[in-house]
Amino acid sequence: MPTVLVIDDDTIILELLTDYLARVGYRAVTATNGRDGLELFTAERPDIVLCDLKMPGLGGLEVLAEVRRRSPLTPFVVVSGTNDISTAVEALRQGAWDYLLKPLPGLDLLPPLLARLEERALLLREKELYQSHLEDQIKRRTAQLMRQLRDKDILLAEVHHRVKNNLQLILVLLGLQHDASADPQVREALEASRNRVHALAMVQEEMHDADHATQVSTVHYGTGLIHHLLVAHNLTARVNLNLEIDDLFLPPGRAFLAGLILNEWVTGLAQAGDSAEPWSLTLIWKALSRTTQELSLVESRGIWASWVSLRDGPSLGWELVSALVAQDGGTLVWDPECPQKITARFS
User: Fold this and answer.
1) Per-residue pLDDT tens digits for 58-105
2) DSSP readout, 137-166?
3) Do the beta carbons of residue 95 and residue 74 sit within 8 Å?
4) Is the peptide bond before 103 cis (omega within 30 degrees of 0)?
5) In Å, how far are 58, 86, 150, 290 from 80, measured between CA atoms?
């Protein structure tokens, strides 16, 4: 049987409400002042509170504030005199669920009011329980995901360490073979292989950065790779290098492919022979649109014309780069009207 706490300094109203509530299926507990009413609230834990606003001592608004502090989901109905409408409105603003005016026009309005309040309280408690359960599930799932992320971080660190060591070992072996060989063509092939492996190692190193776990920065990668290639081919002292690189982020596969293309280009420049005069080299890596990028290398000696169109057909370097670009659905562009620039365009 639901319990209703009635707080009112009028004993006649208390007797009337106690008798009526008992007849309609409610148990009534009563108090003649706010202080006693709060003690009964603590002892009885009623389902609904009916409280007069104007009482000596602790008034209805003070009782409302304390009940809301202790049990926000307990329905609280204020009972106000006809001249206290503004006070009743203030009680509603402070959290009362409903109000009744004295003198009560008829007790038959109480059952539907109490039933509505019980239903609302039940729905609010179910909502609170559901939210609490949902929050617990979120906490458990978050903790589980955090454990999985820590495990993956440990695994990725181990994979990175092993891959890095293996790539360094390959580079050392290629270097030893390069130094031990007397055949210029073999040495050239081994050096090209070392540069390709180095491009792969740079992609792997870039991905291990926490800020670029799944993408490679064109600024970091392109700058580091072009400087490495110039050093590897002994071109640093003779080349004035310019960089025009947008801050793009590429998937590892495309970054590695671009590294291979850049390696072939610089190798082609190095194989074109020495130059007594310093010459300029510009690396351009830019976005044409949200999905399209261009990688270009501009050199001042006019080498691309001979690299692209030899007497017996395109060079091996041109054919290799063409195949690499086509592998990613891109196009290789060299315009005879702008012979110093060669471009790989990716979509």
Assistant:
1) 888 999 999 999 999 999 998 887 666 777 788 888 989 988 888 776
2) HHHHHHHHHHHHHHHHHHHHHHHHHHHHHH
3) no
4) yes
5) 15, 10, 61, 67
Q: How many Å apart are CA 32 and CA 30, to the nearest integer?
A: 7
Query: For the segment 9-39, what is each residue's pLDDT rounded down to a tens digit?
Result: 888 888 888 988 999 889 999 999 989 999 9
Q: Which domains does the chain have, with CATH numbers?
A: 3-127 (3.40.50.2300), 209-346 (3.30.565.10)
pTM for this entry: 0.50
User: Residue type at 72?
Assistant: P
Q: Which residues pair with 279 in a beta bridge?
A: 239
User: Which residues neighbour 221 within 8 Å (Cβ) at sequence distance 6 or greater?
Assistant: 202, 203, 206, 255, 259
Establish how many alpha carbons lie within 13 A of residue 38's alpha carbon, considering only the half-sphere containing its beta carbon.
Answer: 16
Instruction: Check if the beta carbon of residue 31 is closer than 8 Å to that of residue 7.
Output: yes
Q: Which residues of 193-216 are buried (b: 16+ CB within 10 A; e: fewer)?
A: bbbbbbbbbbbbbbbeeeebeebb
- Residue reference for tokens 């041109």: 318
145: how many CB neighbours lie within 10 A of its CB? 10
